[in-house]
Each structure stands twice: as structure tokens, then as C-alpha cells.
Design brief:
Helix content is about 80%, strand content about 0%. By secondary structure, it is mainly alpha-helical. The chain starts with a helix and ends in a 5-residue tail after the last helix.
């Protein structure tokens, strides 16, 4: 730590405070460390490490799932999911808030993208909620907090990256994310119900006649079959996650043709956005990997474990401390970069030191750091929904607090009750 602190961590924090982009901060601080610390690594080795960090077969699934989500979103199929969610939960007090959350859960099974959820569902439902006299900050808070489910319920692009870099079963992670994602959705709905009931928010939308309801369900079925086929095929051993990504793209194109929504301009736009999203993710992965390898090389995980064990021998207390630490770290830094850095750093501590299952660790790590998207100053989800609702970011940050408390409660259940994450993977024989 005598070397790592002044030559790696301090430059990195200074660059972040100067508002330098995360990927540049990671690269420059790593360069400063390698140049001034006396640690000698051949430049060719560094380049090779960066290349190897993204040249993984499992990461081929990443652009596939991104493209599938882009296509389905651009085909306008989100409207069908929202209509189905309205039919399912619109009759409960705070109906549109529940529609928002339920639509996010269904959209998560289609795209696996947080920001795709915010861009599609947020632009439709936030104005609708405001028209029904929900509070502006409340509408934005519901949308931002429920969008996190997009990375938890499979298929999830973030799970693919975590699995590839921590050598975890991506199929196991997909199966492990189902129950926590559902629990978070239900917890958010409970909070939304209580707030809506106390403040008198929203109208109650009774189901329409049976024929209209039947048409709503049948219109959404082709979209809802996407997660069923993908997750069923993966956990059933029919195809790998990478093959599932290719199948998702083929199915998305088939839906576009069937609904006469597919044209060359739309396809080109979806491909361009896929390239942009994939490239921005992978460049962060490669630079964060070098940063992480420096920490691992200097035995920072072992030192961290010794410090924690000197504080307490109680596993529950240590899990609480680590969860709090990740929530704080996630507040100041990009979630994806955090996962690449903190994953290898904490895995020996949590798995070897505290006995957490590797798959359980992966889900706990992901949810902990994703919550940073809801907290200033870097809360990207807040910055996306605030302009849509036309409210200041700080007002949304205050409104999102009750929802964050519910998510943290589920997070602690993930950390302390192994069956929350492992029950479904064990049911399908994906983990021991």
C-alpha cells in the first residue's frame, strides 16, 4: 500500500475530482504508477493484458444482446409490454408506478440494459405519470430505481462481463439473478404503493372487457417469449449464452419482419448504437483490467482481508461493512469500471475469507455497485430521468431514497441468505 497509495490511488482520485472521464483516469493513473513507482512491466505485456481482457469468447454475447435489445426497442415493442403491465397491475393504488416497475421487469428480460429501459420506458411513462398528478420527482425516482432491474433479471450485459472476468458461469449468474430481480421489483412496488396511498397519487385503471384484455396479452406474447426461450435454453443446456445472444438477434429480426418494422435505416441505426455501447464498455474493461492487475500484483486483496479480520471476526458484520464500502465507492465511480476493479480485489476476501459462494458474490457485487447509479454526484440514472420529469437532480435524489432503502434490504438478503441467489441455479444443476 506504501507504493500503490501515492502512485496509483491518489492520481486516480485527483483525476476523478477534476472531472476527467473514468476511462482516461484509469489509464493515466496506471501509467503514472508504472512510470514513477519503480515497478517495471514491459509495454508489450501491458498491451497484451489489455487485449486479453476483452478477447474472451464469452464477451461475444455482449454485442449480441445489446443489438437484440436495440432492435426490439426500435421496433416499438416496448408499448406492448407497457400495455400488458397496465392490464396486470394498473388496478392497484399507484397504478402507473406499478406499471412502470412491472414494465421494467419485463423489459429486463428482453434487453438487459439499464439505459435502454430509461430511454424507452422513461420517456413514455414519466409524462403519463405526471399527467395523472403523480409528483414529478416521484415519477422520476420510480423510473430510475426500477431501471436497475434491467441488469439483474437476465439476460444481462453486465453479468456477461462479470462472468468473463471472474471466471464465473454466465449461465449460473443468469439463473441467480432471477429471484433477486423479482424481489427488488416487489420491494419497489411496496414502497410505491405506500407512498401513492399516503399522498393520493394516481388513478386506478380497471381492466377493460375480456376481448380487449385478450388482444393486449396476445400482442405482447411474441415479445415475452424472448426471455422464456433464451433463459430456458441457457439453463436447459440447449445453447450457450453466446449462442443465445445470436438467437436473440435472429428472433428480433424475425419479429421486425413479421410486424413490418424492419428497414435498412433502422437496422443501420441499431448496429451503430450497438457498436458505440459495446466499444464504450470494452475500453473501460481493458483499462480497468490493468488497474485491477496492479492492485492484485501488490497483494492488496490479502492486505484488505487482514484489515477486515482485525476489525471483527463476525462474518455478518464484515459483510455489512463491505456492502457499505461498495455503496460508497459506487457513488463516485462508474459501475462497470468498479466491477472490473473491485471484483478481483474482493473475491478472495468474500469467497475465501468469508465463505460466500462465487455466484452469490457476483450478484452481490453487481447490485451493490449498480446502486451507485442512483446516488449523486455520478448517479447517471438520475441525470437521465431528471430532464424528462423537468425537475432538479437533487430533488430526484431525495425522492429515490425510500426505493434505495428497499433495494438495500434485498441486497443484504442476497449477501446473507445464499438460497436467494443459489436456489434457482441449483434447481437446474448449474452450481454445486
Amino acid at each position: 500500500m506504501e507504493i500503490v497509495g501515492p502512485y496509483l490511488l491518489v492520481p486516480f482520485l485527483v483525476l476523478l475530482l477534476l472531472n476527467v472521464p473514468v476511462v482516461v483516469s484509469l489509464g493515466l493513473s496506471s501509467a503514472v504508477f508504472l512510470y514513477f513507482s519503480g515497478t517495471r512491466m514491459p509495454p508489450l505485456l501491458i498491451v497484451t493484458e489489455m487485449y486479453d481482457s476483452v478477447a474472451k469468447f464469452a464477451l461475444l454475447a455482449l454485442p449480441m444482446f445489446v443489438l437484440a435489445g436495440e432492435l426490439l426497442n426500435r421496433f416499438g415493442l416496448t408499448d406492448r409490454l407497457i400495455a400488458l403491465a397496465q392490464l396486470m397491475v394498473g388496478w392497484i393504488r399507484g397504478g402507473l408506478a406499478h406499471v412502470n416497475i412491472t414494465a421494467s421487469m419485463m423489459f429486463a428480460g428482453v434487453s438487459g440494459s439499464i439505459f435502454g429501459d430509461l430511454a424507452s420506458i422513461g420517456t413514455i411513462l414519466i409524462p403519463s405519470m405526471i399527467r395523472e398528478r403523480y409528483g414529478r420527482s416521484f415519477s422520476a425516482a420510480v423510473t430510475a430505481s426500477s431501471a436497475l432491474i434491467g441488469a439483474i433479471i437476465p439476460p444481462s450485459t453486465i453479468m456477461i462481463i462479470i462472468g468473463a472476468h471472474l471466471n464465473l458461469s454466465i449461465s449460473g449468474l443468469f439463473a441467480a439473478g432471477i429471484l433477486p430481480g423479482i424481489l427488488i421489483g416487489l420491494a419497489l412496488m411496496l414502497v410505491a404503493f405506500v407512498i401513492s396511498w399516503r399522498r393520493g397519487y394516481g388513478e386506478i385503471h380497471r381492466p377493460k372487457d375480456w376481448s380487449t384484455s385478450f388482444r393486449t396479452v396476445t400482442a405482447a406474447l411474441p415479445v415475452l417469449t424472448v426471455p422464456v426461450v433464451l433463459i430456458g435454453g441457457i439453463v436447459g443446456g440447449v445453447f450457450t449464452p453466446t449462442e443465445a445472444g445470436a438467437a436473440a438477434v435472429a428472433y428480433s429480426v424475425a419479429l421486425g419482419v413479421a410486424y413490418r418494422q424492419l428497414d435498412l435505416e433502422l437496422l443501420f441505426t441499431a448496429l451503430s448504437e450497438t457498436v458505440r455501447i459495446t466499444a464504450s464498455a470494452l475500453i473501460i474493461v481493458s483499462t480497468a483490467f490493468v488497474f485491477s492487475r496492479i492492485l492484485t500484483f501488490h497483494r492488496i486483496p490479502q492486505e484488505l482481508l487482514e484489515v477486515l479480520l482485525s476489525i471483527s471476526q463476525n462474518p455478518f458484520l464484515l459483510v455489512l461493512l463491505m456492502t457499505l464500502a461498495l455503496l460508497i465507492v459506487g457513488t463516485f465511480m462508474d459501475a462497470l469500471a468498479n466491477m472490473i476493479i473491485m471484483g478481483p480485489l474482493l473475491m478472495p476476501v468474500m469467497v475465501d475469507g468469508l465463505g460466500m459462494h462465487p455466484i452469490q458474490f457476483g450478484i452481490w457485487l453487481m447490485i451493490s455497485l449498480l446502486l451507485g447509479l442512483l446516488t449523486p454526484p455520478l448517479g447517471l440514472a438520475l441525470f437521465m430521468v431528471a430532464p424528462i420529469a423537468k425537475v432538479p437532480v437533487l430533488r430526484v435524489a431525495w425522492a429515490v431514497l425510500p426505493f434505495m432503502i428497499a433495494q438495500i434490504a434485498v441486497l443484504l438478503a442476497v449477501a446473507t441468505i445464499p438460497s436467494v441467489t443459489l436456489a434457482i441455479p441449483r434447481l437446474f444443476g448449474l452450481v454445486q
